[in-house]
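chain below, 206 aa
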Amino acid sequence: MNLPSKLIEDAVNEISRLPGIGKKTALRLALHLLKQKESVSEELAKSILALRKEIKYCSTCHNISDAETCSTCNSARRDRKVICVVEDIPDVLAIENTSQYNGLYHVLGGVISPIQGVGPDELHIESLMSRIAKSKDVEKIEEVILALPATMEGDTTSFYITRKLKEFGIKVSTIARGIPIGGELEYTDEITLGRSILSRINYSVD
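prediction:
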């Protein structure tokens, strides 16, 4: 792509690093910013820098947060007896958009994948076990929902977690497979995902 300005070229190269944005889209965005007031670019730059420098991860569930503990974990209106285990943050957002779930979450930060060198120790599995072990009385965790991808890696992770949870004697369920095999929660429509949450089934291993 031949551009008349090194500054535009640099901007296009940086913008096109974002997922789903090619060079042509990056050029349109760069030219759009040039047509706006300077304050628009300044506010955009400020918000991106603030996002990168100030965003936190919840010390309990590992979701994104503005504080040490996220608003979901702090909410008195959530069902504190149920934890939904997901692969990553976009899955939390997808499930929340269904308005069919009112429990807590636990973000693993990935799934077990020996091919990619990701083992259980690289994920937030032990912190999940710690949460369950520490839950007591009225807030004692009674169910863990495994809302992981319907892939080999997702199934391997579900199997591993279920084996670890056996010692606690709590209910383990998985979302109904209205989600297509090989599908990602992030890209599943809200109706299908919502029904999968409501129609979750017990998950057990021998």
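The chain has two domains: 6-54, 64-202. The chain has a mean pLDDT of 90.
thats it, cya
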